[in-house]
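Hi everyone,

Forwarding the result from last night's run.
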Amino acid sequence: MRPKIKICGLTREPDIMAVNATRPEFIGFVFAPQSRRFVPYDKAAELRELLDPGIIPVGVFVDADMTDIIGLAMAGIIEAVQLHGHEDAGYVKALHERIPKVPVIKALQMDAPADEKQPLIYEADCWLLDTGTGGTGKPFNWRMLDGICRAGRIGPMPFFLAGGIDEGNLDEALALEPYAIDVSSGVETDGLKDPWKIVTLISKLRKDLG
């Protein structure tokens, strides 16, 4: 099964035009103020209006007020939620109860010491395996996944693979058979999304996998 693609951290109209032309399955709006890819809610709403309706917009949050997430989902600005903070099982369960049709993706910090890793939260719909709190542009040690990834799943759930994925290491990332790959810095130039890099990476993935 060909993995799906998520282009994360869109902030400008040219970013939307680039993904509309290449049609990844997912894009990400980052609502964490500490991120350089932060986009305000009103700007995300404007960009959402321009987005191809066949692409799923994901809202990326870090320890956010749940009412903000619910509001964005109910307004149709996002269609999936990605959590990168200290959100626990109760938080995820409450989101499912309030917005039951909106999938929840929970990020796991794969480079944290074993005794500091967050516990697995089975109330989520997918894992996202990343370096640190995300947005670092660096991969974690993917070798730790050898032998435990099967058809894009870890344990009972599918996983997105994130962290420093670009055209140069795409083949290595695909060998882990993720449900989806999540790319941000790997399709940027000087801190901004580069339409050519988006086209090149997505074309390579779809050409290699048929």
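The chain has a mean pLDDT of 86.

Cheers,
N.
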